[in-house]
Each structure stands twice: as C-alpha cells, then as structure tokens.
DNA sequence: TATTTAGTCTATAGTTTATATAGGTTTTAT
DNA sequence: ATAAAACCTATATAAACTATAGACTAAATA
C-alpha cells in the first residue's frame, strides 16, 4: 500500500491540477476540501516543492501551484518521490535496486522473475497515466473564495 | 513494497516447498540458508502456522512443513496473510476495503479508476502464480544434514 | 514606511507500527 | 533423564505517521 503521505499528495495534486492557471492555492483550502491535517499537508507540499514539482508564493495571496502542466506529471513520479520503489521487492526495483540478501543467485530466483512481471504491469499504467488522467470526472470546478 | 516480514516469508516458503515430502524442516536451517534472523523467522513461521498454511512438529526431529502442495498456494494469499492489502489504496482493495476519506465521491474519482487497474494487473499475476512457480530454477536440491 | 495580516518554512515531539532480540517454557525422541 | 526442537512472552530499537509551536517572509494598507 501507498503511505498516507503519498495518498494525501495525490489528492492535493489533483486539487492543484483542477485549479491550474488560477493562481496559487491555499494549503488550508486543499486541507479542508480533501479532509487532510493542514500541518501534515504543509510538510508534504513543501517536500514536493523542494523536489521541483510545485512552486509556492509567500505572503498574502500566496499558496502552492503546479510548475508543469498536469499532463506532464506521471503518477509513477509522484509515488517514487514520496514512497520510493514501486516494485514489491528491492531486488526488482528499477530506481531503487538493492541486491537480495536472501537468495544466492537472483538469476535463478523464481520470485525475482514473477515480481519483475508485477512491476512491469504496474509501471505500464503508472508511467503512462498522468495527473491529467485522474482528474475528477464530469465535475465543473468552481473557483472557491 | 512488501514488508520484510513478507519478503522473508516468501523465501522461507520457497525453502519449505523445495523440501516438501522430506519431513519437518528446522527453523535454523531455513534461517541459515536464507540469511534471515532466526528469531524473527520464528515469529513469521508461527504466524503462518496459526493461519493454517504450515504444520509443525515439536521436539527432536521437529520442524515446519507445508500443509498443502506448493501448487495450491497462491502468491497473493501469502501477501494478504502477512501484509494485508495488495492494492495501492484502501479504497480499491478487494479484501481490505476502506472508504476513501479524502474524496467526496469514489464514483467520479479518477485516481480510484487507475488504481483499480493497477490492482487488477497485479492480481492477475499474483493470484495465478503459486509457490511451485517460483521455485529455484535448474538447481538440484540436496537433502541437508 | 510602519504595521498588520496571511501565509510559508523549520524544527521538534508524541504516537503508532514495523522490525528485531532475548530468555524462558513445553513437547518429543532417544 | 536428557537433549533438541518448536513455542511463548516480553522487551528493545527503528521507522513512519501525526500533530504542534514558533520563526520567517511577503503583501496590503493606512
């Protein structure tokens, strides 16, 4: 399962995507709309900002906003940023590979083979779907405030 | 990622499967062969026993053994037993469903839809592959001791 | 330009869950 | 009886999660 952090990040990013090009969005607005602890959300958005995914503006009229169009932000990228590996085992991770300490030879490990396939199947979806693809369907988004 | 517990369980079960019909296998043998802390492994095997997946025999000549043929133990079952949900989000889990607290309506949540597909893709593999399918390839298994 | 206000940024602390260890108890075979 | 093995309970350690307090920054306005 994805961590709470990543789950919240998804919902927050969806909210930001739905309000793209409408100027900075308040943390408090996202927190209220998505039912997330405002302070925890604060940390998450900051992490996303430091990773280059979000921009922010301080002071009155400030808030957070996407730095790229939603279409260009793959779901896989969000998961990797906050949760790390998408694979079920370290030894089949593309981006966070670690040698398996429990088997003598990965090349003949049957587990390795199956888990690689699971990873590929997941990645096929998560790499090709973007924030734009997961926006709330059939719902007009009013500007709050 | 799968928890350490589940990762260790997989390797232990593979070991047991490779020695099926050879009588009880010592915890210490598995621990040494798979490089797992013997005490942690003890807890894991006990949990698998209490869940009905393993049998055990106490005392001299004792150990653990599979209660069913490896072919009949699906990988998904092992994961669910120790790690819980296979899905990435609680709201798309088949066996551990929880309502999403962060979105107003699951029916129109785009995240829900994509994550359901990821779940299905993973399950297709994990439900259909068994312990038998992940045994070490091309390796004759000698009886130790 | 001083002040107020709205907001981000930083640090930290408490709580829970995951991982691991230690020691003692019970059962079984010989 | 003795030794070997699983079993049980308690505890220690580390990581993840949640929450809180206060510092800092930018904008608005008088």
Automatic annotation (TrEMBL), chains A, B:
InterPro entries registered for this protein in UniProt: Tscrpt_reg_Rrf2 (IPR000944), WH-like_DNA-bd_sf (IPR036388), WH_DNA-bd_sf (IPR036390)
An example Gene Ontology CC term for this record: cytosol
The keyword DNA-binding belongs to this UniProt entry's keyword annotation: yes
Domain of life, source organism: Bacteria
Family matches, as Gene3D superfamilies: Winged helix-like DNA-binding domain superfamily/Winged helix DNA-binding domain (1.10.10.10)
A Pfam short name: Rrf2
Keyword entries, A-Z: DNA-binding
GO terms of molecular function: DNA binding; DNA-binding transcription factor activity
Family annotation (PANTHER family): HTH-TYPE TRANSCRIPTIONAL REGULATOR ISCR (PTHR33221:SF5), WINGED HELIX-TURN-HELIX TRANSCRIPTIONAL REGULATOR, RRF2 FAMILY (PTHR33221)
The protein, known as: Transcriptional regulator, BadM/Rrf2 family
Organism in which the protein naturally occurs: Chitinophaga costaii
């Amino acid at each position: 399962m994805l961590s709470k952090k990543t789950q919240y990040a998804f919902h927050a990013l969806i909210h930001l995507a739905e309000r793209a090009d409408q100027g900075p969005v308040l943390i408090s607005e996202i927190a209220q709309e998505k039912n997330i602890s405002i302070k925890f959300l604060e940390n998450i958005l900051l992490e996303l900002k430091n990773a280059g995914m979000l921009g922010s503006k301080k002071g009155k009229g400030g808030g957070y906003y996407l730095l790229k169009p939603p279409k260009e932000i793959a779901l896989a990228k969000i998961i990797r940023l906050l949760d790390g590996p998408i694979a079920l085992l370290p030894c089949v991770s593309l981006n966070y590979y670690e040698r398996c300490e429990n088997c003598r030879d990965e090349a003949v490990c049957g587990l390795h083979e199956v888990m690689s396939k699971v990873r590929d199947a997941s990645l096929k979806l998560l790499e090709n779907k973007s924030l734009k693809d997961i926006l709330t369907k059939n719902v007009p988004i009013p500007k709050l405030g």
